[in-house]
Amino acid sequence: MSEPVVNTLRARAFRLLESDFQQSFASKAVNIFLIVLIITNVAAAIVSSDAHYHEDYLQEFFLFEQISLTIFCLEYLLRIWCNVEAKVYKDLPTAKARLSYFFSPIAFIDLIAILPFLIAMFVSIDLRSLRLLRVLRLLKLNHYFKGFDLFISVVIKELKNMMAAMMVMVFLIIIAASLMHAIEGEIQPEAFGSILSSLWWSVVTMTTVGYGDIVPITALGKVIATFIMLIGVGLVALPAGMLAARFGEEIRERKKNLNTHIQDALNDGFINKEEYQSLADLAEKLDINPDEFQRSIRVLKQGHHRENNDKKQEKCRHCGK
Predict the structure, then answer these.
(1) Which stretches of the chain are DSSP H helices?
(2) The pTM is what?
(3) What is the pLDDT of residues 189-207, one digit of tens each?
(4) What does the buried/exposed string (b/e) look like for 131-147 if buried means 16 or more CB atoms within 10 Å of the residue's CB?
(5) CATH code for 153-320?
(6) Distance between CA 296 and CA 258 in Å, rounded?
(7) 3: exposed, middle or buried (C-beta count within 10 Å: 0-12, 13-18, 19+)?
(8) Could you give the residue range(s) of every CATH 1.20.120.350 domain in the chain?
């Protein structure tokens, strides 16, 4: 088989596995099939954890796992083979591109989905651990729902602030546990006999879960518990607020970035085919909805034409004078 034919097959495989759902019917069918397979694998892992179902349908679970494992292995090998077609690897030698993809986080997730089960064929592994790893196949959905990339990007950018908030929470949990040990330790030694045993109450109270299995009985302990709960209401919500604010900011920055590139393309008055494809690729990379992308082009085109018309009218008025 000649190299051009190999490259053509590789490009087709890449489009089938990595193209957006709207690109082609074949790509949509393949992606939906793999999504359903991942979800049914997780469902099978959940159901098989019940001893009754596991014994009654042992052969069916085993056959389904073998079929799924075969498909996931083929998918993994195909992705290793064809991902050299991705734009990020286009300028790299084929071997280096495949190696780069092999060590990428998304490829590592795919490897987790199959490697332990291949090892289990030759080495004895705890069945409960295998069930846990089958549930982790949910992470493979990152291939098909690009919003995960936005979430990961937001978490990474806000990680420093979130870690600071978490550290403050840990400090307050330790301080609260120490106070309750000092106040309630002698009265309730089974619950607050040490700072270590007091940590459970402190965490439950600080996060406002309030199981009620351990409660202070002294007046001072109740006062301190009240302040801890009030502080916890605001403190636990702080990371969520940070993420929400960062999500909005990240989406605005991405739209602004795309709009800047659209305005640059409109400098000559129109967007040619190459420019449009480049903008579409950028919108996909930025996880911007295709409808939002089209809307941005329409709005900016109208604004550009309106600005040009205003300039022409202004020029005509000056000419008339």
Answers:
(1) 3-18, 25-48, 51-56, 58-82, 94-102, 105-120, 127-135, 147-184, 189-192, 195-206, 219-265, 273-285, 290-320
(2) 0.65
(3) 988 999 999 999 999 998 8
(4) bebbeebebbebbbeee
(5) 1.10.287.70
(6) 9
(7) exposed
(8) 3-145
